Every structure is written in C-alpha cells, then in structure tokens.
Amino acid sequence: MTSADPTGPTVAACQTDVADLDPETNLATLRERVAALPDAVAVALFPEQFLTGFVPDERMADAAVHTDGEAMDGVRDCAAANDLALLVGYVEDGGGDLYNAVAYVRPDGSTTVYRKRHLWGGELEVLTPGRERVTVETPLGETGLVTCYDLNFVADSAAFTEARVDALFIVGAWPAAHSENWRLLVRARALDGARWAVACGRTGRRDLPDARPATYGGRSMVARPNGSVHSALADAERDLVTRCDPAELAYHRKRVGIYRD
Hints:
Blueprint: E1 10-14, H1 23-35, E2 41-45, H2 59-63, H3 70-82, E3 85-93, E4 98-105, E5 111-115, H4 123-126, E6 135-138, E7 141-147, H5 154-162, E8 167-172, H6 179-192, E9 196-201, E10 203-206, E11 214-217, E12 221-223, E13 229-232, E14 239-243, H7 246-256
Parallel strand pairs: 1-2, 2-3, 7-8, 8-9
Antiparallel strand pairs: 1-14, 3-4, 4-5, 6-7, 9-12, 10-11, 12-13
Helix pairs in contact: 1-3
C-alpha cells in the first residue's frame, strides 16, 4: 500500500493482472482485493476490461457480460458489502453490439456506465464505439470517466475542462512498451483542467491460444492538478492508496487561474 496526504477522500487504484475470457475468476480477484483495502478507501478503481479481459475475436462475445447481469450484480454486492464505490472495466454485451465499458458502481448499487469512445487496435474488429462522454459525482467531486486511448484526444480533455470536472478517473490496459506515453498523458490530462487524475492500469500478460500475446505496463498513478506525480506504481500487482486533499485542488486552480472567468 502507498499512502500520502493526511486529509481528503482516499482512492485506490488496484493494479492487477486479468484472467482473459474468465469473468468468474476476475470477480473473485475483485472481492479479494477490495476486502484487503483500508477502511478509509472511498473509491477503488480496477483496470480496463478487468472483469472480462479482451481478445479481438469471436470468443469475446461469449465472455462479455450484461450491465444488469449476474457478473455485474457481483460487483454491486462487493460495493455494498465494503461500503465503497467501484470503477470496473469490462466488455459489455449491449444486446447486439459489444462495448468497451466501465461502470461506476455506488455502495447503494446504482450504476453509471461509460462506453469507450475511441477504440484502438484489435478493438476495432469486434467492438462498437460509445457516443457520449460521461461524468459522475464521486468523493473527489464531479469526475470524468476516461478509458485508455481516450487519453490521446485533447478535444475530450477540453470538454471535461469546459465542464469544470474536479477529477478524471482513468482505466487502462496500456502496452508495456509505451508506458512512458501513458505516464505523460495522465499528467497532461490532469494539468489541462487543473484537476486530479487517478489512473489504474492493467499489468501482467495476455497469453491465450490463437491470440497475439500482449504485455501490459501497469504504471498506475495519481497526478496532481499541476500535472506532477503524486504517487505511482511500477508493474507489480499492488494497490495504490492515496488521499486527495481538496485544499491542494483549490490551491493549484487559484495559482493556474484556469477558471478565473
């Protein structure tokens, strides 16, 4: 565990490997990791496509889950049992189309879904892009939801800046070979709107029969509203637990002056 400031809401980026095409195993991992978190944690993030994993072929349709289905009910039960919010990535069966989705699940079970708007690589072969940007109210304030390659699109970041969000929650499965790009983009998106950026990355390796292997970088991090690194991990399976002081957000916003008007 890594802790930081003595005040403010506590968030956790639960950096983990993923069992591709195996929601049951991933749900068990979710329960185990959440149960081990400190009581102070108000929100825990898990990586992109965490619940289902991903492979760019027809097998994905069998592993995809419904947002109102049994696997996601397990996520809701976990949020309720541990009295915290969860942000969990998965491939969603949208009733004819598959989406790269992330669900913000509150302790009362209410769920908000964001479908990744900018698909990359093999995702283009089997998934449908989402259409809407999504923000949710979290313990850090109004928060924009961002998935992996979305980080590259400055127009999306500008839209969140226009909306004056206080934080971005970012989930990713970023290739290890390009980890420095991930770190740079997370920091830049924090600075764009003088906001917190909490990023949870997948680590480990995809190694399935008849699928191209992939190694993931991890590199979960929390970036301050001035773009500096507050706390970060390398590629181990660990929890990054950080308190985000609202006074620090206010300080940097005043200093940068981005919202003076």
